[in-house]
UniProtKB/TrEMBL annotation:
InterPro entries: ECF_Sigma-70_Domain, NTF2-like_dom_sf, RNA_pol_sigma-70_dom, RNA_pol_sigma70_r2, RNA_pol_sigma70_r4_t2, RNA_pol_sigma_r2, RNA_pol_sigma_r3/r4-like, WH-like_DNA-bd_sf. PANTHER family: ECF RNA POLYMERASE SIGMA FACTOR SIGI-RELATED, SIGMA 19 FACTOR. It comes from the Bacteria. The keyword rRNA-binding does not apply. Interacts transiently with the RNA polymerase catalytic core formed by RpoA, RpoB, RpoC and RpoZ (2 alpha, 1 beta, 1 beta' and 1 omega subunit) to form the RNA polymerase holoenzyme that can initiate transcription. Residues 113-161 form the RNA polymerase sigma factor 70 region 4 type domain. The keyword Ribosomal protein does not apply. Residues 11-74 form the RNA polymerase sigma-70 region domain. Belongs to the sigma-70 factor family. ECF subfamily. SUPFAM superfamilies: NTF2-like (SSF54427), Sigma2 domain of RNA polymerase sigma factors (SSF88946), Sigma3 and sigma4 domains of RNA polymerase sigma factors (SSF88659). This is Sigma-70 family RNA polymerase sigma factor.
Length: 291
């Protein structure tokens, strides 16, 4: 019984910090409470003698719960700015303490919460933990099961978006160099080189005309996209650099007949999105100049 009280007191001492952490990640007081409650349930059934750093362990648990909630939210795509704002104000939750909610929101700022809501789940977790709570990249990497370099890049990209520079891209020469390097790595099947060019959260979209199943395809993440590029190595010899609507791109033209255009989007010099176009109607709308 005494041990139970000690455990409860230990957790309650961490609760304010955990709730503030969850609130900044989720932007929702109700979801922050849910995340902390889930952390308590895991804490309550864990052998504490096996935990060396309790604060770090609880941070990891809450961060992973928040990441799962953010991913589920993104999948449902149910969040609107109106609902987000109403939840932030706490108007519909009589059980919440208005003063606490106001202090939490004021410490972050509504504008910041809205900007954070536009980040991907992984960007948001990396940015909040590192920039707001000063958690080391190595520790965040362990929490997110990613490499420290990937987490550092996620935080950097999030930081750029928060500061209003997230839509900026590299200069034309750097974009061209990245596309050239992508083609060279694809031709040689250089998997590691492809990974250095791709943003960790890169997304590849291919229209229905590209796939044998005749339906659109989406790949998410650098590993999946790099694997698909390596699989396309035999076709890369029919591929050349071109300017498509003024930007560097790749065109595939076996026997001189245009069949596929591959367009790229960037954050800095990292490739963040790849659009593979094979639909003849879409191809006809593109302004293509061979380089």
């Amino acid at each position: 019984m005494i041990q139970d009280f000690l455990s409860l007191d230990t957790f309650e001492a961490e609760r304010p910090r955990l709730r503030a952490l969850a609130y900044r990640m989720l932007g929702s007081g109700a979801e922050a409470d849910d995340a902390v409650q889930e952390a308590w349930l895991r804490f309550d059934r864990t052998d504490l003698s096996q935990i060396e750093n309790l604060a770090a362990w609880l941070t990891t648990v809450v961060s992973r719960v928040c990441l799962n909630l953010l991913r589920a939210r993104q999948t449902r795509r149910e969040e609107s700015l109106e609902n987000f704002t109403a939840d932030w104000l706490g108007a519909a939750d009589e059980d919440r303490i208005p003063q606490e909610e106001a202090e939490l929101a004021d410490s972050v700022g509504l504008a910041m919460l809205v900007v954070l809501d536009r980040l991907s789940p992984a960007e948001r977790i990396a940015f909040v933990l590192h920039d707001m709570f000063d958690v080391a990249f190595d520790d965040i990497a362990h929490m997110m099961e990613r490499s420290p370099a990937a987490v550092r890049q996620l935080a950097s990209r999030a930081r750029a978006k928060v500061r209003g520079t997230g839509t900026q891209t590299a200069d034309p020469a750097r974009r061209r160099h990245a596309v050239e390097a992508y083609l060279a790595a694809t031709r040689t099947g250089d998997f590691e080189a492809l990974l250095t060019l791709l943003d960790p959260e890169v997304e590849l979209r291919a229209d229905a005309a590209v796939t044998a199943a005749a339906r659109p395809l989406t790949l998410q993440g650098a590993l999946a996209v790099a694997r698909s590029a390596v699989a396309a190595t035999p076709r890369a010899r029919f591929t050349a650099l071109a300017l498509v609507d003024g930007g560097p791109a790749l065109v595939m033209a076996p026997l001189g007949r245009l069949s596929v255009v591959i367009r790229f989007a960037f954050a800095g010099s990292a490739i963040t999105a790849i659009d593979v176009i094979a639909d003849p109607a879409r191809l006809r709308t593109l302004d293509i100049t061979l380089d």
